[in-house]
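For reproducibility, we list the full input for the LKAUPR5Q complex.
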Amino acid sequence: MTETLKRTLRDSSAMRWAMLILLSGLTFSTYWFQDFFSGLKGLMGSEMGFSSEEFGRILALTTIANMFGMIIIGGIMLDKWGIRVAGIVFGGIAVLGGAISALAASGFFGSDHGSMLNMIIVGRILFGSGLEVVCVVATRTIVKWFKGYDLALAMAINMGFGRLGSAMGTALSLDIGGGHVSPAVTFAATLIGLALIMFLIYTVFDIKLDKQEKAISDKSGEVCDPEEDFKFSDLITLIKNKSFLYIALLCVTFYAAIFPFMQYAPDLLINKFGFTQNLPQAGEVILWGSKAIGASSIYLIFFLFAILFAVVPNNFENKKTRFLFKSGALIAFCFYLFVMKDILAIWLDNGAKTASLIPLGTIIFTPIFGNYVDKKGKAASLMILGSLLLIFAHISLSILDNVYIAYFGLLSLGVAFSLVPAAMWPSVAKIVAENRLGTAYATMFTLQNWGLFLFFWGIGALLDFVNQGIPEGQPKDYTIPILVLVGCGFISIFLSFLLKKADRKQNYGLELPSNSN
Ligand SMILES: N[C@@H](Cc1c[nH]cn1)C(=O)NCC(=O)O
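The corresponding predicted structure, in tokenized form, follows.
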């Protein structure tokens, strides 16, 4: 697009990506807070005396307000108040929830088992309501800035920030807590506060964009698709739409097999495959830290140059340039792996750190698949493939006992976890009109929370049930709790086929490239 055609902030690619980063702070920190307890499960047992069922209860009750309409209410607020107010209010609720959980874990409300458990849960309920509405706000905001541009890629990158938050929260909480739960919770809550400040900065640009768009529509008499208020009849219309119904149910079964698994994955790896949860010595931390920071900074500088290079128009038109760029990226990555090999070896021996590779891997794969969906389409087919990988992953991590196959299982789970969201979320924007997207995402997340509630709690309760009589600290048998998740994979495949069939009839173009719309 030439300068003369750039009419608003959103027509500048630098501006769009900068807004995405400001917005993604909330995604990063809320995902961190959602998932960081997974790395602390063992410690929550030994330090606070929480059983697996109680651990599951904390996670499950995070979803309770959402199951009973909180996300829909948030969606209505979003439609009524707009992105800015909704983001600030629900981001604020997440901060408040995080703070209550952090105070509870520090013993502020009482240091007995019951007070700690109940007040952590109160904080998590508030946090959970904030997290989900913030996600709807983020998706809505990305559509606002990226519609007609690389929408799927932008959604994938935003999700990448979320996954980075999940991965870092899982991997580092034990180290951040220094062997205690409370500092790790305080740190996680502080992150959401910082992210809210980033969102406040975003709102300044959002106001400017709205003013520019209004000026253009006033001048040209263009009538934009108006935001419509939420009506319950919209919900009925949505549910009656077969493609929407299948994709919403797929969202339930697919995520029920992933998010709950991730919360238990570090403990599973420790109990079933003998991974460690040792904290490194102070000297080792300094040595690895300096090595990792040194190597990562060199790689980051290279990466920033690569991005700079990539955004200069027409750079990739040239075959030779493309080849040079790709080989340079590969050499830099090999060098990086070489420098980091000792750290990687220790990383791959630690339960929480190995489990964190699932969301970490999706950071690389989701944008690649997002870009693929933008350029080539095939969204429904990719969801079938993702569901197949899910089945392999859970079988390899439950009934099989080989640690190398388990690594493959984790890898295929990471690929599935990248494929399905990269295909699913942009597909919703094809099925549903833009002014109904808030309602659509809110409905999907509400249903998703029912599945999460059941499996967050169910896995913990089942784990206690099948391991009755085994004292804390002894290896627990995870076979049946994880095998149950294979069932979710089969239902996901079935729903993906139904979606593909419905799309053929309803012609939403789920198998077509996003950029062609
Ligand atoms: N419901 C959201 C946010 C979320 C993250 N963990 C639990 N809830 C969601 O599922 N977003 C899509 C994603 O793939 O993360």
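Residues 31, 34, 131-132, 135, 159, 162, 255, 259, 421, 445, 448 surround LKAUPR5Q (CB under 6 Å). The chain has 19 helices and no strands. Both points were considered when choosing residues for closer inspection.
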